[in-house]
Amino acid sequence: MKDGFIKVASGTPEVKVADVDFNREAVLRVIAQAEDAGVKILCLPELCLTGYTCGDLFFQEVLLNAARRALDEILERTKETDLLFALGLPVRDRGKLFNCAAVCCRGELLALVPKTYLPNFGEFYEKRWFEQGDSEPVIFRCSSLPELGVGVEICEDLWAPEPPSVRLARGGATVILNLSASDELAAKAEYRRALVSGQSARLVCGYIYADAGEGESSTDMVFAGHDLIAENGIVLAEKRFHTGLVISELDINHLVYERNRITTYPAELETKTVEFSLEVSETALSRVFEPLPFVPRDALKRAERCEEIVTIAALGLKKRVLHTGAKRLVLGLSGGLDSTLALLLSAKALALAGRPSSDILAVTMPGPGTTGRTRGNAEKLAEHLGAQLKVIPIGEAVSQHFRDIGHDESELGVVYENAQARERTQILMDLANAADALVVGTGDLSELALGWATYNGDHMSMYGVNSGIPKTLVRHLVAYFADTCENEALSSVLRDVLATPVSPELLPAEGGVISQKTEDLVGPYELHDFFLYRLIRRGEPPRKVLRLAALAFAGVYDEETIARWLRVFVRRFFAQQFKRSALPDGPKVGTLSLSPRGDWRMPSDASSELWVGDAEDR
């Protein structure tokens, strides 16, 4: 359970209706398979010891006694089994029958949890046999992992207007088990999946759903064994039309972090608690950790996301244009990725406002590091988008500035680089003043995280349209424009921009070729965006981020390389907070923003040593 991960499973054993001995052995086989796979929490289906479709046989003492004997034998044979499991059986108590979940661990029956909501409509007749449960909610709390609280509900409980899982989550359950026997109908699987993922999101929990399989009677219904494991709105694993196990890992620490972060999540209610213990060991991880967390892997979803983000960012800029009454938009166009996206978003914003792209003043300001490739692309972009282009070389002005401050122009250090950035910003601001215009910033979220911006240079603008977009997503947004625009010439330029190395072009070019490559200096942006998402959005400690990065980028970067750039990210993120504290406005387009007025509030003087130390504690 290292880093808060715990391996869990949803299981559908084979079943023969009313053949309790067969079902007992089938359940034990699934439990053994789960144990061999390192599973610590296992959910099995509703009434799986007898079969869900026994009908009036539920009244028969022979069936009920056999189910109880089967449970006793399962407990006896799992005394050395290090996992918590829940299985379904009918239980007679006080002269009434209850549809129950037996929650067991290490040969002990921890509790019997009765079903709360009994369906008695359509193909379901449960009230004919069972009594509604109304017992106090029970939380099963793990002594070796206190953040792990397990709650149980049964099938229809989830479909009801007030599911028991709501009270269970409020009582501290971070994992909900659902023992189900949901028959299969056309299109029902999609609705079931939405229920499970939606409930896990609403309750910020892990949700394990185990469904009865095809061994149930087909007299009136067919069962498909649709097993699901979800975490905070994301379906981690599922299978349908199967028997056996569905396995994944839940991140309990992340669920606790999210509940702490969300101020509308209520404090825990007092509930009945039953303790159990599991051996603490490292959980082998099988779930996928996306190397590009801001970019959907699926092409269709990626295109939809790109269109959505473009629209959100453009609407933000449109609102600012209308509010300020700006007659024009001014931006520095270098021919690189960020300024290209800013130009595209500016054109989109003006179109939404019913205004032409000619209201954009694109200014390219070549300096000592500017190459013909980037300058040429900047000029072509402005032409194909219909923006006005202005070329203002800055070499002479910067040289004069160096003479004014007594700086040796042969010293290619921070003064040499930052003077160019500030000269460009001064030009843009003054042009905006002269044209009653608004300066559109081009810096992106990844640069803000790393502080890869000149303070009061490219760090400053009147509206930072890219400020909520990480670098890996910037690339895909530009590619999306290239794929969808009807202008072939514009598409060709955009593809060449995508093929150009990321560079601030502040050092002299070598033979007309870019000499200063950002990722050689601060590290690969795909790694930094992974760090940004997991450290800041998910609140994970650096050693956990390193572990997950090694899995996500296996075969791409070795662990030492990842660790080196992780230390760089942490140190720069802390050291550069003062720049983020003075950010201009800009639209939040995803779940993460570094705006001091929005998502992120951090003192500029905070020490990074704890985080650096954690990254090195491997």
Strands side by side in the biggest sheet:
11-10-9-8-7-6-13
Count of alpha and pi helical runs: 20
Poorly predicted regions:
none
Strand elements, count: 18
Number of domains: 2
Helix content: 40-55%
CATH superfamily of the largest domain: HUPs
CA radius of gyration: 30 Å
CATH class of the largest domain: Alpha Beta
SS class: alpha/beta
According to CATH, what is the topology of the largest domain?
Rossmann fold
Largest sheet: 7 strands, mixed
The CATH architecture designation of the largest domain is 3-Layer(aba) Sandwich
| CA-based shape | elongated
Explain what you see.
This protein has helices at 20-36, 61-77, 156-159, 164-170, 188-203, 252-261, 299-324, 337-352, 372-385, 395-405, 414-435, 445-450, 471-484, 488-499, 518-522, 525-537, 542-552, 559-575, 577-580, 609-616; strands at residues 5-12, 41-43, 84-93, 96-105, 108-114, 138-142, 149-154, 175-180, 206-211, 227-231, 234-239, 244-251, 272-276, 328-332, 360-364, 388-391, 437-441, 463-464. It is α/β, with parallel strands linked by helices. It has two domains: 2-276, Nitrilase/N-carbamoyl-D-aminoacid amidohydrolase, CATH 3.60.110.10; 299-616, Rossmann fold (3-Layer(aba) Sandwich). A hairpin with a 2-residue loop joins strand 4 (96-105) and strand 5 (108-114). Helix 8 runs parallel beside helix 9 (372-385) and helix 16 crosses helix 18 (559-575). Helix content is 40%, strand content 17%.
